[in-house]
Amino acid sequence: MFITRPLNPAIGSLLVQLIRSPKTSRDMKRRGEIWLYAFEFPELFCPRTLGEVTGVSAKTVRKHVERFEQSLDALEASVAEGNWSKLERTIEDCLQDAPRSGRPPGFSPLQIVSIISIACEKPEASGRPISKWTRREIAEEAVKRQIVIKISASHVARILRSVNLKPHKTKGWCFTTEKDQEAFAKQVQEVCEVYLQAPQNYEQAGVHTVSIDEATGLQANEKRAETLPPKPDQAGKEETQYTRHGAVCLTAAWHVVLGQVIYHTIQQTRNNDDFANFVEQLLRGDPDGKWVIVVDNLNTHSSEALVRLIARLEGLDEATLGNKKKRKGILGSMKSRKEFLSDRTHRIRFVFTPQHSSWLNQIEVIFGIVQRRGLAGASFKSQQELIERLNSFIHYFNTTFARPMNWTYTGRPTEKENMDQPLTWRQRLKPKSWKDRWNEFQKVLAA
Q1: Which domains does the chain have, with CATH numbers?
Q2: What dihedral angle (degrees, nearest 10) is formed by the CA atoms of 307, 310, 311, 312?
Q3: Quick check: pTM over 0.70?
């Protein structure tokens, strides 16, 4: 009855480590020993003999060997992934007891569904001047509606957790103002294709794909008291009162392929000339190279100064650009200026993200890192200190943990991947998903 296939060395090593650990329970050690003996000495042990060695019955030996045989494919899949911590957790899970039935439920399915329905309602509909439910208030409302005689807040939490319902959490969204949805989808797809094709374009043709934007309103705030560092069993303490010393604007260019902030400036203004000068300085990094620049729809990103700069670098006659004040030619409107900057025949091409779609601009992710890692909780006595911190952090970021982003979004809804993986014996016994439970609850409610 013992398994004849060889035991993977990684699984065997973790089993030995688990058996020798003083933190492992006696029952888990016995089951681990059964697994090892069943693999290492299949010709010497029968279930009865192995039960005598490990101190269990032959029936128990057969049960745990069968469980291990059912779980072996899943364990070897974890070994193939190279995730040793996951493999260790999976082995520990396989050595656990099977789930027990427990005591009978205290509430009927109809009562449970009714409690869930309260959490799905707006609190204002129940006459409560709050915006979000808490589990205590849901319990009170269930008693008030005579759904149950009594229920604790912790029991309500267990019911909500069983269907993965979190009434205290919300997820925001923003509708695009684009009226033409097909044009919007096309624009999103264009930005995504720029990111996905950037490595190949850089390797074959030396095309630099960069993402540019401004982080405005970075404030030089000075804490009125020094921040105290954390101590064992004690959190750090930070003063909430501060003195303002002004704000600066960080403009940065993120190289999509290299995964580096290749150029940045810090100043107090961000007008048309500032952005045009920034682009001019950026392009000096490779004056004769090809550039694809991803920007948002801020008016400074399609200004007259920028159009004239690109025309000059492309070798075009500026007299052919028209007149902005008279609304003629390329300079006549923002739409015509964007079309000129987006011209695919140019050596320097701009790609504009759709309205309200800043999440498509990779530099926004970098600005978030700068804010969280470099500025959050810091104190600056002047703007100069803030500028020095930004410069030093960007250098630190480039030299330590900056790397290209693994962009996988294509602009289209992602197809559900095939997630079929081998399961252990315990995973086959796990309760139904919250969606299955919810469907069952809805059937009960309908009845």
Answers
A1: 9-94 (no CATH), 101-169+425-447 (no CATH), 181-227+238-399 (3.30.420.10)
A2: 120
A3: no
